[in-house]
Design brief:
It is built from 9 helices and 22 strands. It has 469 residues and is α+β, with helices and mostly antiparallel strands.
Length: 469
């Protein structure tokens, strides 16, 4: 018997001892803490404390009940999006494997070695990649909104419903510029979430974020609107709209595509990204507002794609520092910092230094707001701008074109307002009006600094609006 046990122990001991030991150690720790916390001979000191009376915490209980009702209303409209896509093949026939092409080995033997012996190497197949995200059902017949980066390049899309059903989904349309996508499942009378108006949001209002962070399905977190009209500092594409809702409701990887809802259970945004030094939530999550989502989704459902209006100008905000320079009574409007040659803006006569104050009779609050409105217009539409030029208001009609694959740094917004500046300044010509304002002599030539972005290299160097280079 002992020899049999010894033999079994020698074969399995290494695999069994560690787990059993861990369990035993945990058990001993728990027992020790339990005995230490409540000695065997200790007597109860008195009656246990009672819970607070409902009347004293009625407001909190009502809030809890309201949040519970809200979560129960929205959760059935949330889906988990699982995506399969194919990555790039690593090695073609007769090609040196990755890592050898630029190595001394590859440089010495050259591609001839790969052609001669590559067929003997096992070719690497395209990688199959899997991704997880979230989405929200917006119609009873199965249209679902998510992020473009969730389904980009997908060969297979499946959604898990709140009742645990797994359904195949097809991609209806995507819009990389706004990072939005619409997918669809077959169904009738599906639970869905109503739209809300993001323009009515204010900092401090309660919002809830729904989604599947880290694959934990149907998670809800609560927070407030921290700020509005935030740019995306991680994007280097200046054409992308930057009017994000900032929230401290926890948004983590996997939340992408899920809804941000208000206290009425209305979708006011689509969760998109977070800012964190660790990659996990640190109190700063961002959602695309419905003022961008709704018109984009409607076009995706109708046409399968979105064609954005394009003016071909660089713009930035009017600041309190440069508002007087532009003869503005307040820091509102969008300063033209660049005009692309042969663009709609150039054809209409827009100039660097113009301040766009109105579009189709509506006030322009800042550059981001103008960018959103123009991007939602159809190509061929003529927009009527009111421009402040050299202290005078000028009407400028501009016929928009379709946004194509032009230089990313010059479309609709200047790099100075997009978080990744090179110099962080906007320049303009020295016009007679500017020369008079600066009290500059006729002999002075160069470019006048119209704006300086805070924190930019120019700002750090001490440059200011009104300086002449």
């Amino acid at each position: 018997m002992r020899s049999w046990i010894a033999n079994l122990k020698s074969k399995l001991g290494r695999h069994l001892v560690a787990p059993i030991l861990a369990i035993a150690m945990v058990g001993s720790f728990v027992t020790y803490d339990f005995v230490k916390a409540i000695p065997a001979k200790a007597a109860m000191a008195g009656p246990t404390a009672t819970a607070l009376d409902d009347s004293s915490v009625g407001a909190l209980l009502s809030l809890d009940q309201a949040m519970e009702t809200l979560a129960a209303r929205v959760t059935p409209a949330i889906v988990n999006v699982t995506v399969t896509s194919r990555g790039k093949a690593n090695m073609a026939d007769g090609e040196l494997p990755d890592g050898l092409q630029d190595s001394p080995f590859g440089q010495f033997f050259g591609q001839q070695f790969g052609q001669q012996f590559g067929r003997q190497m096992r070719p690497q197949q395209p990688r199959v990649e899997h991704g997880l995200g979230s989405g929200v059902i917006i119609s009873p017949d199965g249209y679902i909104v998510t992020n473009n980066h969730v389904v980009d390049g997908a060969t297979d899309v499946r959604v898990t419903m709140s009742d645990r059903r797994i359904l195949p989904a097809k991609v209806v349309g995507t819009d990389p510029l706004t990072d939005l996508a619409v997918i669809k499942v077959d169904g009738k009378n599906l639970p869905n979430a109503p739209w809300g108006d993001s323009t009515k949001l204010h900092p401090g209002q309660t919002v809830l974020a729904f989604g599947n962070p880290f694959g934990f399905r149907f998670t809800v977190t609560r927070g407030i609107v921290s700020a509005l009209n935030r740019p995306n500092p991680s994007s280097d594409d200046a054409r992308k709209p930057g009017q994000f809702i900032q929230t401290d409701a926890a948004i983590n990887p996997g939340n992408s595509g899920g809804p941000l809802v208000n206290a009425r259970g209305e979708v006011v945004g689509i969760n998109t990204f977070l800012i964190s030094p660790s990659g996990s939530f640190s109190g700063m999550g961002f959602a695309i507002p419905t003022q961008i989502v709704r018109p984009t989704v409607e076009k995706l459902i109708q046409f399968g794609k979105v064609t954005h209006g394009y003016m071909g100008i660089g713009i930035s905000d009017v600041t309190p520092e440069n508002s007087r320079f532009f003869h503005m009574d307040s820091a509102a409007g969008a300063v033209v910092t660049q005009v692309e040659p042969d663009s709609p803006g150039a054809k209409a006569g827009l100039k660097v230094g113009d301040v766009i104050t109105q579009l189709d009779g509506n006030e322009v609050s800042d550059a981001g707001a103008l960018q959103v409105v123009v991007g939602q217009k159809n190509p061929g539409t003529t927009v009527h701008l009111q421009v402040m030029r050299d202290g005078k208001s000028v009407a400028v009609p501009v016929t928009l074109e379709a946004m194509g694959s032009r230089d990313k740094s010059g479309n609709e917004i200047s790099e100075a307002t997009h978080g990744k500046p090179r110099w962080g300044i906007g320049l303009g010509d020295i016009t007679p009006d500017v020369r008079q304002q600066l009290q500059a002599p006729e002999s002075l030539h160069g470019a006048v600094i119209q704006q300086v972005q805070p924190g930019s290299p120019a700002d750090n160097a001490g440059l200011q609006s009104g300086d002449v280079i």
